[in-house]
Amino acid sequence: MSQLSAAYRPSIVPAETSAAPLNCSAVLTHHWLVRLRGGEKVLQALCELLPGAPIYTLIHDPQEICQGWPPVRASILNRLPGVRRYYPKLLALLALAARSMRLPEVDLVVCSDAAVAKAMRPHPRSKVVCYCHSPMRYAWDEQLRRQYCRTLPLTQVVPFLLSTALARRIDAAGARRVDQFVANSRHVAARIRRDYGRDSVVVYPPVDLPAEPSREAREDFYLCVGHHVPYKRLDLAVEACTRLGRRLVVIGEGPEVKRLRGQSGLRGQGDITWLGWQMPEVIADCYRRTRGLLFPGEEDFGIVPVEAMAHGCPVVAYGVGGATETVSDGVTGVLFGEQHADALIEAMRRVESTAFDPVAMHAAMQRFSRRRFLEEMRGLLRRVRSDKVTK
Predict the structure, then answer these.
(1) Residue-wise pLDDT tens digits, 170-224
(2) How far apart are CA 9 and CA 199, in angstroms?
(3) Are residues 228 and 187 in the same domain?
(4) Do 58 and 99 sit in the same domain of this protein?
(5) Can you give the residue range of the structural domain that contains 292?
(6) CA nearest to 375, candidates 120, 12, 8
(7) Low-confidence spans in the chain with pLDDT less than 70
(8) In angstroms, rounded to a whole number, what is the distance separating the alpha carbons of residues 280 and 28?
(9) Share of the chain above pLDDT 90, in %
(10) What are the contacts of 276-282 at 24+ separation with CB within 8 A?
(11) Structural domain total, the chain
């Protein structure tokens, strides 16, 4: 466990016995709705608890997020031509746009946030609950900010630092208006304490679990799934598989996919299949067949490893952050302690020499079920309405 998460022990929310919708007026807020990933799956579950509640967001792609969702109200930035291609570069404008959005008077504002959605302005009589996937990384993570600055042209470094400083200031002001923080892991709860000076309770996010695990023989390839940005360290998976002579299948897009695909021919990278974004059925099929999921980055929680383990797929994960709360070393996967290719290779060899029980793995993942999330969040929201909060 990381030093950060080991230093802080938040409380865990007790579950209620019923996950029926709440009878109250509410709005939902979310940082941006451009693709269905882990944060958006949490938002979908919150919509079940608060049916009819509109969603306020900064950027919305109606071609990706459309049918089955409540009304979505996007910020003025959503009107910019082609903004869904470059919005991550508008950090300061996103923060300012969030601060300019005023929410209607309702009983509850439930914020699903990994950026600055909490900066939207609630009515003074509304109670605000923030389900925090992570404090905004580029605003609060000094190490990540330094790493990113090294990739920028010199002329862009100062503007980037100024924009992160502004976003951090606006984000901190939004955090002060939150009545109850909810963290998606103990690791994130520790970061909420460090960055915002606030206590929180932990409710693990909902994961769509299969009815039963796969008992099929595993095929000879490894798998990476996700939106591949630098901190997820896809480069380590590529290097490890190349050096071991193992096949790697990569699902998902992101800047690291473009960069590593461009280098693959130059560096002699071996048997790598780049599948891009895929439907959930395709991803589930890969979970059932792969030798193991490689998860070499530091994640706040990590829904993908839980999905994989529920299918009976062992996970090879960097032993920091959320993976320490989901992966049981030697039982559902293997954790490695140093974030470099040699350590990952050693962990892959351990996976290849270990017999994993898919039934036991599937059973261990039931604590991350969707029903459990709905029950815990319903109980928490009811307590917030009754003023039993830990602000």
Answers:
(1) 999 999 999 999 999 999 999 999 999 999 999 999 998 999 998 888 999 999 9
(2) 10
(3) no
(4) yes
(5) 222-368
(6) 12
(7) 1-19, 264-270, 388-391
(8) 25
(9) 75
(10) 276/251, 276/252, 277/35, 277/251, 277/252, 277/253, 278/251, 280/208, 282/251
(11) 2
